[in-house]
Description:
The complex is a heterodimer.
Chain A: E1 5-13, H1 18-28, E2 32-40, E3 46-54, H2 62-68, E4 73-78, E5 84-95, H3 96-104, E6 108-112, E7 116-123, H4 125-137, E8 143-145, E9 149-152
Antiparallel strand pairs in A: 1-3, 1-4, 2-3, 5-7, 5-8, 5-9, 6-7
Chain B: H1 2-8, E1 13-16, H2 23-28, E2 36-39, H3 43-57, E3 61-65, H4 69-72, H5 75-83, E4 88-94, H6 110-114, E5 120-124, H7 130-142, E6 148-154, H8 155-159, H9 183-194, E7 199-203, H10 205-209, H11 213-223, E8 227-229, E9 244-247, H12 254-262, E10 265-269, H13 275-278, E11 290-295, E12 309-312, H14 315-322, H15 334-346, H16 360-371, E13 376-379, H17 383-390, E14 400-401, H18 412-422, E15 428-433, H19 434-437, H20 444-449, E16 454-460, H21 465-474, H22 490-497, E17 501-504, H23 510-519, E18 524-529
Parallel strand pairs in B: 1-2, 1-3, 3-4, 4-6, 5-6, 7-8, 7-10, 8-9, 10-11, 11-12, 13-14, 13-15, 15-16, 16-18, 17-18
Amino acid sequence: MPDKIRVLSVLVEDGPNTLSKVSGVIRRRGFHVTAISVGPSPEPGRSRLTLQVDHGHAEADQVRKQLERLVEVLDVQDLTDNDVHSRELVVARVAASDLAGLLEKGAKLLHSGPAEATVEFAGDGEEVGDFVNELTRHGVQDVVRSGPVVMRRTA
Amino acid sequence: MVLEALEREGVELIFGYPGGANLPIYQHLPDHPKLRHILVRHEQGAAHMADGYARACGKPGVVFATSGPGALNLVTGLATAYMDSVPMIAITGQVASTQVGRDAFQETDVIGATSSVTKHSYLVTHISQLPRVIHEAFHIATTGRPGPVLIDICKDVQQADAASVPPEHLEIPGYKPNGHADLDLAKAAAIALAGAERPVVLAGHGVLLSHAESELREFAERAVAPVGTTLLGIGAFPVNHPLSLHMTGFMGTGWNLKAVQNADVLMMVGMRVDDRVTARLADFAPKVKTFIHIDIDGSEMGKNVRPQMELVADAKQALNAMIPHLPEPEKTRGTWLAQIDAWREEHPLRYTHSNGHLQPQDVLVDMYKRCRNEAIVVADVGQNQIWAALWWNYDRPGLFLNSGGSGTMGFALPAAIGAKFARPELPVWCVAGEGGFVMTAQELSVAVEHQLDVKIVLLNNFSLGMVRQFQDDFYGGVRSQVDLTHMPDFVKLADAYGLPAVRVDKLSQVSAAFDAAERTKGPFLIDFRIDPEAKVYPIVPLGKSLNDFWEAPENA
């Protein structure tokens, strides 16, 4: 992971203003989001954001500190350089002729038709990147990729 | 319901302007005689008045504005308060909740437009949210590092009828204002400072906000450490104290900058350490071995200068935690203090006397002699601000108010009006250049309407003085768009608004003009026609280090 990227897991209040306030802080402090995923947390009314952020010319700890200032933000963990599980998901529509090779690489079949099939693949950022490159080599255009969800390996 | 909630929060004064989307609130205002409402002439004026009010008395200033343009006119005032950590509550009307997002008449995304200049903000779309939101807003605005909080209330919510019941207790899980210092860290920091050979303490607005002036003084005297203040920290330490270094930063005093640049331990209390304090960051305080930074906002740690010791705490708490660990003052630091005295002799504050023009410093020195420290001075932005900062010897907190972080021209008059409402017993002086003054001059009507004893000291140099100075010295001497010869006749302007005014061109007229101002009840304006070439000194050239400050020419 390049030096300037921080990986943060952020617990937020699930409200209409939250995402724009988080993204607003990131923008005006000169940071840049390179990947993001959002989903509900087990606690009602709270969501979990996973952010990969380029902190630009600011000090690395500013990303966490600036996010912590937001009242909508309940908890920020900077997981950069931690021992983590980091998972991303890809879904792609592929030619039926490519299917066997992709399944061999670990893809999971979601749907299969006479001419084309839909597969998913989950892995860490590097594995998913390799898989997407493989799809590109096969000329696959129809690809959607999630941001990462990240968890420490040990609590 | 809004008004009842404000009464519960102890609000006495509101600065505001009615319009389509906040009419339901105004409809009920006459039923609440305890809430005094000041009708401003422009919403920016309301925001600065609330700001000046809060700075002068410590209570949050409250502002009303309608949706769209009304709310947007607050933005500069919110930004000013936000940059300087001033508690404020802005209550804006929003179109009905069913209309939001439909580009209704006077609809603007006010939360979006103000998120970057408020500590927090709320859009209230249902009456059930309102009591909690208002209570939370006051808590957030006034605790921790204070700041403005905006509450955008949909018009249908303002009209809804509901029993107004405040929540029993506050629960804001995402809001954790810092307070107490880590005691071990405080002890270590005290020992580090006490053990320094050349210690310097710099104090910012945070010291004033936490009312830690006496703790700072005790700390400095026990540690025998000289103390400078930032522009916003003026009043945190008496300028006449033998350990005072006066103001720091790129327009600070020569002896302050010398001390900072030669310090071996630098303690920064309640301040952001911004570019106006450090000048060229790479050369800031280069001999310091240990930076100690105390601030209530943890994000300030290392934002600009990476401290070796960080105390994320309220200034008063931190100083109180440190003081017991300072040794009895056996050390006199004779060499270091003598060195600072020598710098003070070598680099005194001085100004040009002899070119036949009225000098702004003459005006301010005369004014200071009259008021001593029994008046509030509210400065605008630019040369007038720095002159007012340097040429008064503020010995107590809360006497010098100005827009430091945001540098908002037009701040002074409305903020002075707000300060006068907050502290009616104190004389209030508004010091402004003519450029900033006309940006909010419409608020003269408010001063006249309420016969406020606000004395306006216009330092009129027929130009945007600070910009001209920068152009002369740092931008190739090209004077571009700074000429303000075409301005109103300020005596006639004052007359049109209904307040007395005089013009002063010569030093010999200064005293009589001040006499007249002091004799007059209610607002008074003096148009001081000052030296059009007057400059601010000392000044660090843009992009240079604090070592490179320029001084006023000697005996010119």
